């Protein structure tokens, strides 16, 4: 019943009388968030390479270790790897987690999801019978620019959010736009990091013109919308002066 | 997966999974609509049952009876989707969350079998396995919908309750066997015609093999069927022993 106490609350300062009853809840085996993210993100990085380099067992013996004639396939590999390397760097240097751990069961579920999808989409992009996008260079260049902008945006937001917790405090503060233009999305949206993330995957879908990538993007969008709505509700609850025109993930819409 | 349906556990009312005390339940108007819906569904499945019997008597054999009830079967089985939507959108009150997932599963698998297998692969429509699951579904649904009807009217005969929580012991394996045999019979025709399959290369860089998909569906019955079956056995013990306790003090 009720919310649990925060890590930094001191027993002496709690608003109780001379006796207090403390309830403990066994959360089960836990694992640190940083560890989880490191495992979740390293998987797709290397799994993609298995398909990119066309390891023996993937596309049959005739195609092993060949490379694709399409430059977009190399580009896709670079973008995909860049994305996950960026995530790994952020996990180690940028993110500050409010809660230290999560249940151990989650890691199996999460890894299956991330790794499984990475394998599925890598299979099609690096397939010998892969067909490049219909609108050729125009489509690919547009996608690359959108990809870079969204990645920069996502990174800016993560840095901004991390700065809110700079002095080591674990309390929640309202994020506001800073001098960095990418953070101006905060005017419209509570969770622009999710907005940019969806943008990244949309650009990757356009770049590769591949249905499995599109499906993955759709699932990401759904999941992030759920997370964004939760976060948005938390903000609304905790801060009475929260900007009322902000939407959770898509400006004006969602 | 044919089943006696597993919505609602303890209470007599299939829709209100709470204690069997003075339940708030749906308002009068909603109850009215629900009763009508369940009566219509009961009638629909009775029509299918009667259709089967008449066709059997007319033909003198039990082969190829599918054609005589094809349309009402499709109509009423797909109608169950509406019911599932109502459950999920919470227009039907007091639902136990687990039962929504389970019935969703059953409805999806039944609709899949009706449309994606039996309707789509014409060659299997003359198989006896089709009759096997149609009969199982028909009996199950007649009992289930009359169970809901009587519960809503707060006049549930013990016989119906007993039937709903007992006949599944035979009907469920019967239905599952029929379903599996039908899918298995469809396999060579799917392979031959490349039904619902798309192969590389194509501009969307996607491939889907319906044949493999059907095999995976068949394999998925192995973990799922026992779970559902034992869940219902468990429900049976709870529901039927609960009634016994109520009877004793009298």
Secondary structure elements and pairings:
The complex is a heterodimer of chains A (254) and B (250).
Chain A: E1 30-32, H1 33-52, H2 56-59, H3 71-94, E2 101-103, H4 105-125, H5 136-164, H6 192-208, H7 211-238
Antiparallel strand pairs in A: 1-2
Chain B: H1 28-59, H2 66-88, H3 97-119, H4 128-152, H5 158-166, H6 168-193, H7 210-247
Give a quick set of tags describing it.
heterodimer; A: about 250 residues; mainly alpha; two-stranded antiparallel sheet; about 55% helix; globular; B: about 250 residues; 7 helices; disordered N terminus; transmembrane helix (chain B); lipid metabolism (chain B); membrane (chain B); fatty acid biosynthesis (chain B); Tyr_Pase-like_PTPLA (chain B)
Describe this structure in words.
By secondary structure, chain A is mainly alpha-helical. Chain A has two domains: 30-89 and 96-132, no CATH class; 134-253, no CATH class. Chain A contains seven helices and two strands, in the order βαααβαααα. Chain A has helices at residues 33-52, 56-59, 71-94, 105-125, 136-164, 192-208, 211-238; strands at residues 30-32, 101-103. Chain A has a two-stranded antiparallel sheet. The two termini of chain A are 31 Å apart. The mean pLDDT of chain A is 86. Chain B is mainly α and 250 residues long. Chain B has one domain (28-240). In chain B, 70% of the residues lie in helices and 0% in strands. Chain B is built from seven helices and no strands. Chain B has helices at residues 28-59, 66-88, 97-119, 128-152, 158-166, 168-193, 210-247. In chain B, helix 1 packs antiparallel against helix 2. Chain B starts with 27 loop residues before the first helix and ends with a helix. Residues 1-23 of chain B have low confidence and may be disordered. At the A-B interface, loops of A face loops of B. Chain B: Residues 1-24 are annotated as: Disordered. Chain B: InterPro entries: Tyr_Pase-like_PTPLA. Chain B: It holds the Pfam family PTPLA. Chain B: The chain crosses the membrane at residues 34-57, 95-118, 165-190, 210-230. Chain B: It is found in: Endoplasmic reticulum membrane; Membrane. Chain A: Keywords: Endoplasmic reticulum, Membrane, Oxidoreductase, Transmembrane, Transmembrane helix.
């Amino acid at each position: 019943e009720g919310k649990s106490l925060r890590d930094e609350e001191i027993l002496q300062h709690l608003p109780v009388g001379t006796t207090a009853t403390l309830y403990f809840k066994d959360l089960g085996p836990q694992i640190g968030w940083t560890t989880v993210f490191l495992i979740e993100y390293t998987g797709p990085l290397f799994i993609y390479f298995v398909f990119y380099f066309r390891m023996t067992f993937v596309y049959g013996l005739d195609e092993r270790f060949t490379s694709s004639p399409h430059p977009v396939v190399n580009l896709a590999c670079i973008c995909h790897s860049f994305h996950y390397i960026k995530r790994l760097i952020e996990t180690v240097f940028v993110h500050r987690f409010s809660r230290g751990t999560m249940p151990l069961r989650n890691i199996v579920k999460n890894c299956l999801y991330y790794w499984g999808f990475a394998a599925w989409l890598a299979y099609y992009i690096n397939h010998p019978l892969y067909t490049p996008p219909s609108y050729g260079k125009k489509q690919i260049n547009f996608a690359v620019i959108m990809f870079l902008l969204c990645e920069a945006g996502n990174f800016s937001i993560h840095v901004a959010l991390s700065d809110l917790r700079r002095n080591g405090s674990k309390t929640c503060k309202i994020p506001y736009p800073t001098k960095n233009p990418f953070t101006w999305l905060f005017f419209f949206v509570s969770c622009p990091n999710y907005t940019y993330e969806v943008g990244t995957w949309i650009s990757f879908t356009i770049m590769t013109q591949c249905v499995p990538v599109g499906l993955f993007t759709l699932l990401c969008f759904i999941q992030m919308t759920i997370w964004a709505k939760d976060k948005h509700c938390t903000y609304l609850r905790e801060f009475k002066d929260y900007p009322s025109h902000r939407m959770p993930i898509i400006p004006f819409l969602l | 997966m044919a089943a006696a349906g597993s919505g609602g556990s303890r209470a007599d009312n299939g829709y209100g999974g709470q204690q069997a005390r003075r339940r708030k339940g749906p308002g009068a108007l909603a109850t009215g609509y629900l009763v009508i819906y369940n009566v219509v569904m009961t009638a629909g499945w009775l029509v299918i049952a009667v259709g089967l019997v008449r066709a059997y008597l007319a033909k003198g054999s039990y082969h190829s009876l599918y054609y005589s009830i094809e349309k009402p079967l499709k109509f009423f089985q797909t109608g169950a989707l509406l019911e599932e939507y109502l459950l999920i959108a919470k227009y039907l009150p007091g639902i136990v969350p687990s039962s929504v997932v389970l019935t969703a599963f059953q409805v999806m698998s039944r609709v899949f079998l009706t449309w994606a297998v039996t309707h789509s692969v014409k060659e299997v429509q003359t198989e006896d396995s089709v009759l096997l699951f149609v009969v199982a579904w028909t009996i199950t649904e007649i009992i289930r919908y009359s169970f809901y009807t009587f519960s809503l009217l707060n006049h549930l005969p013990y016989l119906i309750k007993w039937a709903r929580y007992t006949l599944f012991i035979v009907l469920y394996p019967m239905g599952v066997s029929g379903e599996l045999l039908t899918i298995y019979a469809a396999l060579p025709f799917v392979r031959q015609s490349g039904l619902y399959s798309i192969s590389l290369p194509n501009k969307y860089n996607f491939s889907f093999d319906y044949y493999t998909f059907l095999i995976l569906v068949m394999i998925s019955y192995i973990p799922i069927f026992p779970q559902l079956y034992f869940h219902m056995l468990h429900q049976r013990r709870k529901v039927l022993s609960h009634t016994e306790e109520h009877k004793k003090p009298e």
